[in-house]
Amino acid sequence: MTSSLQIGEESKPRFEFRSFGQHFDQAHYRMGRLSVPVPEAVWERQSEETYILSRTNDVNNTKIRNGKMDIKTYIQTVDGLEQWNPLMKGEFPIHRSTLIDEVIPAFQVEMSLPDGEAFTLDEFLALVRAHPELQAVRVNKQRFGYMVNDTICEYGHVLINGARVSTINSESTELADIHQTIVDVGLEGVENINYLQAIKRVIGMIDKPLAN
Hints:
Blueprint: E1 15-21, H1 25-34, E2 45-54, E3 60-65, E4 68-78, E5 81-91, E6 94-95, H2 96-107, E7 118-119, H3 121-130, E8 134-148, E9 151-160, E10 163-172, H4 175-185, H5 195-203
Antiparallel strand pairs: 1-5, 1-10, 2-3, 2-8, 3-4, 4-5, 6-7, 8-9, 9-10
């Protein structure tokens, strides 16, 4: 196992196992018992976020938090684990050229923009809500951080437009460490579901249940 991974900090692109459902209590208990001490800053974190979902896109994950836009793009799946890399980061007001060159292509839709060189968050969300292929979804996260087998782990309560689900994950640059953590906390056979897919399932954009 490596020792360079730092919880709560950015590192080189990581692989991730994550799932969503209602019943991860036993896995959460084991994760907490197996975890090494982690920084107090990641014991518990809360955030209010807005995800932008597109019916025509399953590879670019767009969220807005604290007035900033963050888009990650799916790179590959290796041994059942997904790798996502940053695609762009931006702040509001967001320039017209950024929307045209980076944001709208990530949604994989056609979108016409009204006049203006920059758009506030409210103006951007109004464009999203007016588009038949896009949907803005409110996501509240309460996350509890751990580290098991040198993988960054998390258990969380998530409200997706008010619908409460649980999530659990393990991520690392080392595939073997994630797979060992999946075994150790008791998540073998549980479906790997990313945030993009989970939100689409909850809001009915994808007709498929969560893991449990």
